[in-house]
Specification:
The chain has 378 residues and is an alpha+beta fold. It contains ten helices and 17 strands.
Amino acid sequence: MLALDTLLQELSVLASSYNSLGTRLSLAAGELTNLGTPPSAGLLQEAARYQQTFETLRDRAIALAKEAGLAGGAIPANLVSVRELEDFIRSLMPIGSPEAVQQQALAMLDRLLSIRYSGSSDAQGALEDCQTQARQVRGLVATAVPANLPQVAISLVKGNHPLCALLTLLEEADRLDDDRWVQLEDTVARSFGRSLAVAASRGKLQVGGQVAPAPREAPSTQTVAPLQASDVIFGATAPTAGAVALEVMVHIGGIGDRTFSDREFAGTIGESRAIEGMQIRFKQPIPGLGIRYMGHLQSTGDTAWVGEGEYVGSRLESRRLEGFTIELTGPEADRYQLFYQGHFARYGNSNVLSGGEFCGLRGDGLQLEALKVWIDRK
């Protein structure tokens, strides 16, 4: 434990000591490109020292992992950044019994759900999205058997989950140095939006008070038979009377584009095949009613909103969708109710969500494997 703490301290010193190195290398690269001016010998030597120090710390971390009995296959093959190395070192730290981990994770999530915003900006919506994710995680952790906790509980307790970054910004503000503050603020901005990061930095968020209640879950009006683990559903089923008929196309890793109907899971379950993109359209146009949607894509984050019939995601890039949001648009939108649900690897089915709510967990590396969408007239 002491050796791991020492490694983290040395890694922090490395990052802070060379915080301007990247800027100077970037300027030197510009001069080399535009004027042909070679980088100075001193700058190259400084970069070499940084590389050597980083590699030494990485080798020490890997050696400690092997001493702890971690198999070689469980050690990441590419530890190429300070952030990746820090996360790896934190993952090696002991965290106590499964029961203790479960209680610590639940306590952290309760504090996140007690956060209140004092202001009027986009941060309120970003906070609600963040707390929706925290509420979903809490449900997973609370219902898990301690001996088989989801990985997200361990990530929370070890402090390497994006939700922890927000909590640390709020609860440990007086004890954070500038470099750590910037790192946490950047994590919150990338995971939950810049507006929430700014609100946290300006003291507009407060931890405390009664835990925010979960929004009432809208019930489905049709019972859908559960999929078996090996099922892959192709084609579409006939819409029920009074329902809005949809066509949902998804791009499934290793399979390609497949089309489904509303009220059935579009994708696969139990085959570890990621959804890499999706497209939704009405089978029959409804005057005054539209739909739009966006996704959270691996490595790049939130996509732009797209309208009916447009594709969102990637193809042939092996980049999975990790979450999505869908909304109804147009003057007739208030006459209809939109519901959707996701199926995620390791976690199973999400709650049934209504229009505008984010389905997934930003920053947690979830793999979306199937989604179900349906619209009812009010």
